[in-house]
Amino acid sequence: MSAPGVMETIAALVPEGSRVLDLGCGTGELLAYLQEKRGCTGYGVELSDANLLACVKRGVSAIQLNLEDGLAMFADQSFDVVLQLETLQHLRNTEAMLRETARVGRIGIVSFPNFAHWPNRLQVMMGRMPVTRVLPYEWYDTPNIRVGTYADFEVLARKNALRILDSFGIQDGREVRRFPNLLSSMAVFKFDRG
To answer: Do 77 and 105 form a contact (C-beta atoms < 8 A)?
Structure first.
């Protein structure tokens, strides 16, 4: 949730009073915001010890779990909303985790860096892998093991029988609804199992 306005934009997709599961919740900033501003309850899932401690200090309930192991501990439709913000690109089991998100939550919300953003395209055309604010690493030290585009996610959603309820890009903290695959550095999708 680095750029100003991004947290508020994502939070607006979450219905008030929802029971939320935030996969890869980091320091719990968004969950704390959802609890305070939107009356939500729920849990974060995080692997990092330091981030779990930060969640506790914020008053956010968090579970230590490696997302690569799946979400078997959660029943079908046990949450109103499952958030998977800027985590998909770090997972080996991306498609399986997307299906788990749809199984565990009535609504899923994902965000990820949009590799098709025009500055990225330009850098690739110049013969280099992109390094930007949203993709700040060199190709050899990036934690991202996947790169995807806004358009790629639409195909993946169809393949997995997910219905896209809303989608847009984010650039400089603002929603981009016109040509989001080209004009936004971050892709955001809200979906259900249809």
So the answer is: yes
> pLDDT per residue over 112-127, tens digit each?
999 999 998 998 898 9
DSSP string, 14-46: SPTT-EEEEET-TTSHHHHHHHHHH--EEEEEE
Nearest-angstrom CA–CA distance, 30 and 1: 8
The model carries a pTM of: 0.92
**Ramachandran region of residue 32, left (φ > 0), alpha (ψ -120 to 50) or beta?**
alpha
To the question of domain 6-192 being in CATH 3.40.50.150, the answer is yes
- Among all chains, which residue has been given the structure tokens 């997910």? 162
Where are the domains positioned within the chain? 6-192
Instruction: Give every residue of the chain whose pLDDT is below 70, as ranges.
Output: 1-4
